[in-house]
Amino acid sequence: MHGVLAVLMKVYSLDRLFFSDKAALRKYGTTSQRIENKMASNPPMENGAIQGPSQQRSVEGDYLVETATLEDTLQQLNVLMKENKELKDRERTQPYSCARTGARFPRSTRKRASQYGVALKETNNSMKDRFEGLAAWKDKQKEERDFLEGKLGEAKERVSVLTKRNEELKKKLQVLEKAEGAVEGESGHWSMQIEALKAQIVRLQAEKSDLVAMNSELQLKMRPSSPEGFIEICIAEGGVDVTKDFPNGPKDSCMTRSDLTVSRQDSEEYTVSQLLQSLRKETQKVEKLEVELLASRERVAELEFAAVKQGEAETQTSLPVGEMEGSTAAAQANGQTQQDAPQKEADTELENLKAQMSKLFRELQQAQAKLDDAEDMKKSLHDRCRSMEKDVAMLKAQLVEKLQVQTDNQRLKLQLENMIKMQQRKTGDERCRDMEKDLAMLRAQLVEKQQVQTENEHLKLQVASMQSMITTEQGKAEEDRCRDMEKDLAMLRAQLVERQQVQTENEQLKLQVESMQSVNKMEQRRADDERTNTAKVMEEYTKLNEDYNGLKQEMKTKETENEKLKLQVDRIQAMIRLEQKKAEDERTNMALVKEEYTKLYEDYNALKQEMKKKEPILSNEEVRELQATLDAAEKALATKQQKIDEMKQEFYKKDKELETISVFQAQAEVYSSDFYAERAAREKIHEEKEHLAGQLEYLKQQNRQLQDEMESMGRRNLNEMQKRHTSLGGAPGGGGPQLGGRGTENIPEHVCPKCNEMLPDLDSLQIHIMDCII
Questions:
Q1: What residue spans of 94-106 are helical by DSSP H?
Q2: What whole-number distance in Å separates Cα of residue 632 and Cα of residue 582?
Q3: Where is the composition biased (Low complexity) (predicted)?
Q4: Rounded Cα distance, 210 and 424, in Å
Q5: 268: nearest Cα among 246, 239, 301
Q6: For residue 361, what pLDDT band results from cuts at 50, 70 and 90?
Q7: Least packed by Cβ within 10 Å: which of 107, 210, 617, 625?
Q8: Which pTM was predicted?
Q9: What whole-number distance in Å separates Cα of residue 554 and Cα of residue 272?
């Protein structure tokens, strides 16, 4: 559009050089100013651009595509045409004054003419720039064509490679189909063996999880407060992982599969070592308990001996009391003058005895309260043990359920792998077919693209011809030019639209080729991933076999250890029963001591009342006797106090022993449950062995029947051969002379290898060999 306006401006400038009328010049100036303003408002356009509000940049060219409405351009052209006609009419009516007079043009006209010359130069330069842009676009189109041709060649090579692979795969499939018929029998046998191994692996994993749970429960019971005694049980896809929290250990739970397997093996070894250490500690504790039980027995014997002595001392104290009553009756007759001083001393001593007796009574009450507290603690410990047993049963049930879920997951994985393999076999041919179809589509698209490129070249040639026509036809009439330019503009717009469509189609084709390449890469990656997955599955299978063998050995060792622990538990239970009996005996002794104490206290009160009633005058001898009785009573009280302290210490120790005994009882119950589970497993194995033995006997019977049938068949064959031999021996009558005439021929010898007997015929030789050997 800018080029058309520039041409019109040039025409007007040439016409203006010959104008002499001022009004015409003014009018022409107004029109030229209008055109200049229009050019200033609309920037210069590049090659193939159309002026308008909306501008779109193409993908490969750097020029702008401006779309404008045709109505504005047509209006401007009509206005210019009218002005041109008016000027021509005035030219005809008014001759050129300047041309007739030969005068020069004014300065203003010269300036404008020079300006329009500069404008023409600028238009020429813009046309050159457009031509260079078109040449660059053509070069880019050639480069794209070469690139697409190279891609097409690569695609053809890939298609040829894929067809070759397809043929090779078809041949391999035929070979495999032939071999599958022979391998089906063996595959069934191997599949049965694999299923049996899987079942054994599942059993071992279940047993392994039970052992790990038992170990964790034992450690939690033995060390509930220690932070290092916590054992974490993690059930993953492959089995049960046992990890113990260390203070400086790793805290990240997300690990790779290889790190998980290594940590799993380390944790399993660590749990086994912990089990062994706990068993050793328990044996040491059992030995310590046995030593302590012996010591407690000795202490009980000492206490019994001390109780006997105490009974004798009490009898001795009762005798002086009776003597003291007799002496008081005799002393009352002597007098009351000498009673004041010793009576005061006796009163003080009696008060001291009362205080000591009250202290002893309080201490006995405290000991009784402590015994009651110990019994309450024992009951609470029993309740805790029962709750722990219930929790253990719940945990075992949950572990069994988790193991069942793991086995189901493994079966589903195997089924998925089989389905994937079948799909890979089936989709080999389908992929080749899809690739062939895609290549055919790409070829068709490339043919269309070549056609579009040829059309683009034709359009370029047309544009060049139009530009040449524009340069050559500048001297023609403006109306014809405007009409032709309108038509050319419409054609160019349509061609530009088609070119944009072609470019979009080229981009789509490029994207399709790239998507096909990405799909091929993804398929190759999937195949590589499937290969790596199969290799990992095989490695896991070998590891599981190794774990199975190691677990077998561990089970044997643990069975022996369980038997030893059961014997130890039986011993501990017997010792516990003895200790309980001893504690009951001690309680009865304490009750007797309390009763004796109450009796003494009552006797003391009675004596005190009698003393208050009688108030006799005591002699020095009686005071000495009373002091002796007081000393004996103090000694008896001191011995009782020592015994009470010893009993307190023993009660404290026995409370601790009862706590450990509850733990041992829980361990014994766990070991007994394991023993019963192992017994059930052994019974199942024994039943399976009996079933297999029955199958073996049935197979042996079938083998014997087959052997009998073979022997009968051999005998029948021998009888038939004997009959054949007899029929051959009796049939030829004149065979002697004929054989005699053939003396020079080589006759084959039929000799028995055992007895070296010559036989005439092969059948007779076979019959003889059977008889000779049997």
A1: 97-101
A2: 30
A3: 329-341
A4: 40
A5: 239
A6: low
A7: 107
A8: 0.19
A9: 9
- What's phi and psi for 252, nearest 5 deg? -80, 130
Q: How far apart are CA 135 and CA 138, in angstroms?
A: 5
**Structure token pair of residue 362:** 């309080």
313 and 632 Cβ atoms separated by less than 8 Å: yes
- Could you list the beta-strand ranges (E) of 386-534: none
Burial level of 420, CB count in 10 A (0-12/13-18/19+)?
Answer: middle
Q: At which residue do the structure tokens 């050019």 appear? A: 39
Locate 250 and state its tokens.
Answer: 């790793």
Comparing CA positions, the residue from 748, 755, 760 lying closest to residue 771 is: 755
Examine the pLDDT at 623 and tell me if it is beyond 70: yes
Counted residue by residue, the chain has a size of: 774
Matching residue, tokens 């022997």: 711
**What is the phi-psi region of residue 633: left when phi exceeds 0, alpha when psi lies from -120 to 50, beta otherwise?**
alpha
Please report, as a single letter, which amino acid is at residue 323. Answer: E
Q: What's the first-to-final CA gap in the chain, in angstroms?
A: 123
pLDDT higher for 10 or 55? 10
How are beta strands 54-57 and 750-751 bridged, if at all? unpaired
For 158: left if phi > 0, alpha if psi spans -120 to 50, otherwise beta; the answer is alpha
User: Token digits for 665?
Assistant: 């009882």
Q: In this predicted model, which residue has the larger pLDDT, 84 or 220?
A: 84
Distances (CA, A) of 528 to 130, 259, 425, 521, 523: 53, 22, 15, 11, 9
C-beta separation of 144 from 453 below 8 A:
no
Interatomic CA distance for residues 520 and 435, integer angstroms: 10
Distance CA 472, CA 469 (A): 5
